[in-house]
Specification:
Blueprint (H helix, E strand, L loop, with lengths): L3 H6 L2 E6 L5 E5 L5 H11 L12 H4 L16 H5 L13 E8 L5 H17 L3 E7 L4 E8 H7 L5 E5 L7 H5 L9 E2 L8 E6 L12 E6 L12 H11 L2 H7 L1 E2 L4 E6 L13 H16 L3 E4 L3 E5 L7 H13 L2 E5 L13 H4 L13 E2 L7 E6 L16 E2 L24 E4 L4 E3 L4 E3 L9 E4 L8 E4 L2 H18 L5 H10 L1 E2 L2 H7 L4 H8 L3 E2 L1 H5 L5 E11 L2 E8 L2 H4 L4 E9 L13 E9 L3 H8 L24 H4 L4 E8 L9 E10 L8 E12 L5 H10 L1
Parallel strand pairs: 7-10, 8-11, 8-12, 9-11, 12-14, 14-16, 16-18
Antiparallel strand pairs: 1-2, 3-5, 3-6, 4-5, 13-15, 17-19, 19-20, 21-22, 23-24, 25-31, 26-30, 27-29, 27-31, 28-30
Length: 706
């Protein structure tokens, strides 16, 4: 992308940059002579004594140049309703629309331009309903006929015309529900998993009746009652997942049971006489020993300690140790950060999502831990309620499945992919009338629905934060653990990650920031539990739990049926999870490393000879032709930095020449832990997917049985 400074030297101001890397530029002079001079010099070819045309470094980065067209000013909500061109606005149909002007100068200049637009709307029989002029945002809302809309789409000062935000009605209605209004609460059958909530305690809410198997204080003097309220909210989401979906479906189903450890006081602060690592070890091991917890949620963090790229803190290291010792899945929230405040409040809208990548927005302790599942947040929608939607100055920042404005981002230690996963955690809404960005705790529709800790006041409340995204992942993990009760923590992590995808909405919003930004904000994506736990006709999930001796490797034969070898778009996704010993004080934090390769089309003996360790007398190992190696994305350099690695290869052409067996090579490489560890346990999950409706499952099942 051309640097902003280059444009400024040519008398151009960068107004906006879009997801497809389009730049919107404002010309401060009419003739643009300096820009035209550069284009002319470039078109003359290579001058004598030079190796490239003049200004080639500048011009070659420009794919095309054009004016902003009227259709470019049609907003996303209108496009979703079928308005993609000015001609789509029927002359006789009136619409209430929000119109925004470019930020092209001083407030008085923008105010004058806005009044000119308002006068035009009035003169053409429209009705101006509201105006808003802020430090950088200039808007009006008006009822206009189609021919007026068509005319305004051609005005150069207009950046966008769109429908007003869609209000969320369901959340507000749910807050008023009583016990008598609720659908039936299903009984908990069998022996479902116990989810450990490490937080502010959990109160005995009516919807948790029969689900709380035990509660402790760590230390004991804290008691177990939840007066702060955070722990009960986290527990509600961990058990029920998406409350709005469950209420709409007419049944309340809990994914497991709850054991609570209260580790913060009634103000949400840790005990001043105890070390946090000590509390964590006591809380997790006690819940594990007394109640059989193998799944924990820790939706707490230290915002004063964002990860700076160096060593993780002792809290994170303790969680990594406990995940390995207890064979437990520990789900940790990535942390929250308010993006803007004061007189920069509008930048929460205008600079979104760029500020997510600011150094101060890195994960906070203990989210950098390697053996845990770190979870960032996606927005559930726009977050505006029906009353506020009437006011033009109330502006949403996000749409559904875009990154939440408060979520913290990776990478983790050593450049490892973090967060591991994302899930719904609410959003923020810009409200200049109150001078702040409103979260779900303040504006219910901006948050996700969960349980209120004082249920005698009301049953439900709302909140925004990665604290609500983390228990949603724990809810999904409990669903899988209920289906596979003997699964190791590594297998659960691999199944969840193998079934995760970055939502298209998040990819589009982050695209302008680059592929690295997508990984840093969204990690592996959001989990689809159906993909994690089930195969179907055109998609098959295979898995293995195993262990390897240090500096050894294993080769797994992967049968590839004939329908997968030709025709259509198809992919293989491999996910590896392992839990190495860690040492907080070392730069090489993990004591053991693991990685994988996917090989096709060659003899297994050659694969073995290529990867095995050889003596000096045996000489160099035989080469493996690059064509045999499947080009998994992300590549080894990016994925091998973490203990949870996932990569995909996609085929569009026929692969019959490579045969009906592929080979997955899993390697274990000793580090400093090789002096006292002899083996490393791991799990690997492989997913074969064919976009066409072919019966992969039936073919593979027959192959594996044989």
């Amino acid at each position: 992308m051309t640097m902003e400074e280059d444009w400024e030297r040519l008398g151009l101001t960068l107004l906006a940059s879009d997801e497809d890397k389009t730049l919107i530029l404002f010309a401060s002079t009419d003739d643009l002579q300096a820009f035209r001079d550069r284009l002319q010099a470039y078109s003359l070819g290579i001058p004598p004594g030079q190796v490239a045309p003049s200004y080639s470094g500048f011009i070659s980065r420009i794919e095309s140049i054009g004016a902003v067209e009227p259709r470019d000013r049609i907003g996303v909500r209108l496009r979703e309703e079928g308005f993609s061109n000015p001609a789509d606005f029927a002359t006789g149909r009136s619409l209430v629309l929000d119109l925004e002007l470019w930020d092209v100068g001083r407030r008085d200049v923008r105010m004058r331009k806005l009044e000119q637009v308002a006068d035009y709307v009035d003169a053409r029989g429209g009705e101006v309903l509201d105006r808003y002029i802020g430090p950088s945002i200039t808007m009006l809302r008006a009822r206009m006929a189609g021919d007026v809309i068509q005319a305004l789409l051609a005005v150069e000062d207009v950046t966008q015309v769109d429908l007003p935000p869609e209000p969320d009605v369901a959340t507000g209605e749910a807050l008023e529900l009583t016990i008598a209004d609720l659908p039936q609460l299903e009984d908990i059958a069998g022996e479902p998993p116990v989810i450990g909530i490490i937080d502010s305690g959990v109160n005995d809410h009516p919807l948790l009746q029969g689900a709380i198997v035990g509660a402790i204080g760590s230390p004991e003097r804290l008691g177990s009652a939840d007066d702060w309220g955070h722990g009960t909210r986290v527990a509600g989401i961990a058990l029920f997942g998406d409350f709005k979906d469950q209420l709409a479906a007419g049944a309340l189903i809990r994914a497991g049971r709850i054991a609570s450890a209260k580790v913060v006081n009634d103000r949400g602060q840790f005990d001043e006489r105890r070390l946090v690592p000590s509390q964590m070890r006591e809380a997790l091991t006690t819940l594990h020993e007394r109640f059989g917890c193998r799944l924990f949620v820790i939706a707490l963090g230290d915002p004063k300690r964002p990860y700076d790229g160096g060593k993780v803190g002792p809290w994170a290291a303790t969680l990594d140790e406990l995940a390995r010792e207890l064979d437990a899945v520990i789900v940790v929230s990535a942390g929250n950060r308010a993006p803007r405040g004061g007189n920069r409040l509008e930048q929460a809208i205008t600079d979104y999502p760029s500020y997510l990548l600011e150094p101060t927005n890195r994960l906070c302790e203990p989210a950098g831990a390697m053996n845990v599942l770190t979870v960032g947040a996606l927005a559930h929608g726009e977050g505006v309620d029906s009353d506020l939607a009437e006011h033009l100055h109330i502006r949403p920042i996000t749409r559904a499945f875009e990154p939440a404005p408060f979520t913290r981002v990776g990478p983790g230690i050593g450049g490892a992919l973090k967060p591991d996963l994302v899930d719904i955690g609410g959003t923020m809404v810009f409200d200049p009338a109150v001078g702040r960005l409103r979260l779900g705790e303040d504006l219910a529709t901006a948050g996700v629905l969960t349980l209120h800790h004082r249920f005698t006041d009301r049953l439900f409340t709302s909140g925004s934060g990665t604290s609500y995204a983390a228990p949603r992942v724990a809810h999904k993990a409990a669903q899988i653990l209920n289906r596979f009760p003997a699964a190791s923590a590594n297998l659960l992590r691999a199944l969840l990650t193998g079934a995760a995808r970055v939502p298209e909405e998040a990819q589009r919003r982050l695209q302008v920031l680059g592929e690295d930004a997508v990984r840093s904000v969204c990690g592996n994506g959001a989990v689809d539990t159906e993909l994690a736990a089930y195969s179907d006709d055109h998609r098959v999930v295979l898995y293995a739990e195993d262990e390897l001796a240090i500096d050894h490797f294993a080769i797994y034969q992967l049968p590839v049926p004939e329908p997968f070898q030709s025709g259509g778009r198809r992919s293989i996704r491999v996910t590896l999870a392992f839990d190495p010993p860690v040492r907080h004080t070392r730069a090489d934090y993990a004591g053991i490393g693991m990685n994988f390769r996917l090989v096709r089309g060659c003899d297994p003996d050659l694969i073995f000879e290529h990867f095995r360790r050889r003596t000096q007398e045996e000489g160099r190992q035989p080469d493996l032709d690059p064509r045999y190696n499947c080009a998994l994305d992300p590549g080894p350099r990016e994925r091998e930095r973490g203990t949870l690695q996932s990569a995909t290869v996609t085929f569009t052409r026929g692969t019959e020449a490579y045969g009906d067996n592929y080979y997955l090579v899993v390697r274990c490489e000793g580090g400093w832990a090789a002096s006292f560890e002899t083996r490393q346990r791991f799990a690997v999950v492989v997913e074969l997917t064919h976009q066409a409706e072919v019966r992969l499952y039936e073919r593979l099942r027959a192959r594996i049985q044989l």
